């Protein structure tokens, strides 16, 4: 009896944090970065925006690797009715951190799973809340000296020098990092992995 060969798993993301998180599941995977322009209008509903961007990345890679199982994800920070995406420069990082200081915000991640050959599509998402400490410019400058904020939504990393800026969080820690592991593990079921 021939058992079905599991499809290749591809992560459609350039994020080193997503790579680290997915590796924790112990599944072999490769990375293919999608050549797409993400939708980043701060006025867009953040759930819609991250779902759109995750699907955009997964669809682009899946089209080029139809036999593979492709995982796409996108994360943003949401405060005062607007999305806070990745900063363009350090001045924008400073402004974002000042805005988040002393307040609670929501982190949304959209997750898309695709396998083009059998036409498999799954879209889901996760939300977590993060409470920031109140801090001033001295803490912001110290944080910027320690953490590369330019590739992170909201200009911060929940796992790096958290003691400086984060008072606490509710929900999935890995979601705040960029890939909700509990949810990802759930959608990467043995049935899907067996094709």
Give keywords.
elongated; alpha/beta; Maf protein; 195 residues; 8 helices; 7-stranded mixed beta sheet
What's the SSE blueprint?
Elements: E1 9-11, H1 16-23, E2 30-31, H2 46-64, E3 69-79, E4 82-84, H3 90-100, E5 104-115, E6 120-132, H4 137-146, H5 162-165, E7 166-170, H6 173-177, H7 181-187, H8 190-193
Parallel strand pairs: 1-2, 1-3
Antiparallel strand pairs: 3-4, 3-5, 5-6, 6-7
- What is the molecular shape? elongated
Overall CATH architecture: Alpha-Beta Complex
Name of the CATH first level = Alpha Beta
Separate helix tally = 8
β content, as a range?
A: 25-35%
Total number of domains: 1
The helix/strand class is alpha/beta
Q: How many beta-strand runs?
A: 7
Poorly predicted runs are none
Main sheet overview: 7 strands, mixed
Which value, in Å, is the CA radius of gyration?
A: 17 Å
N-end to C-end Cα span: 16 Å
Q: At the third CATH level, what is the topology name?
A: Maf protein
Taken in chain order, the helices and strands follow as: EHEHEEHEEHHEHHH
Q: How would you state the average pLDDT, rounded?
A: 92
Q: In percent, how helical is the residue content?
A: 25-40%
Could you write a compact summary of the structure shown?
With 195 residues, this protein is an alpha/beta fold. It is 35% helix and 25% strand.
Question: Can you offer a commentary on this structure?
Answer:
The chain is an alpha/beta fold. It has one domain (9-193): Maf protein (Alpha-Beta Complex), CATH 3.90.950. It is built from eight helices and seven strands, in the order βαβαββαββααβααα. The chain has helices spanning 16-23, 46-64, 90-100, 137-146, 162-165, 173-177, 181-187, 190-193; strands spanning 9-11, 30-31, 69-79, 82-84, 104-115, 120-132, 166-170. Strands 1, 2, 3, 4, 5, 6 and 7 form a seven-stranded mixed beta sheet that branches. The relative contact order is 0.19.
């Amino acid at each position: 009896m021939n058992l079905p060969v599991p499809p290749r798993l591809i992560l459609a993301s350039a994020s080193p944090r997503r790579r680290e998180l997915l590796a924790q599941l112990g599944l072999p995977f490769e990375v293919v970065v999608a050549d797409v322009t993400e939708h980043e209008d701060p006025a867009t509903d953040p759930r819609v925006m991250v779902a759109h961007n995750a699907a955009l990345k997964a669809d682009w890679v899946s089209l080029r690797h139809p036999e593979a199982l492709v995982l796409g994800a996108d994360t943003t920070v949401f405060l005062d009715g607007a999305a806070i995406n990745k900063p363009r420069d350090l001045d924008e990082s400073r402004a974002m951190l000042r805005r988040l200081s002393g307040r609670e915000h929501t982190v949304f991640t959209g997750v898309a799973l695709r396998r083009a050959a059998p036409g498999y599509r799954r879209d889901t998402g996760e939300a977590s809340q993060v409470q920031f400490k109140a801090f001033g410019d001295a803490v912001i400058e110290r944080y910027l000296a320690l953490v590369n904020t330019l590739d992170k939504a909201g200009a911060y990393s929940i796992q790096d020098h958290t003691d400086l800026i984060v008072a606490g969080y509710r929900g999935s820690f890995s979601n705040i990092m960029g890939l909700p592991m509990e949810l990802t593990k759930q959608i990467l079921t043995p049935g899907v992995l067996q094709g």
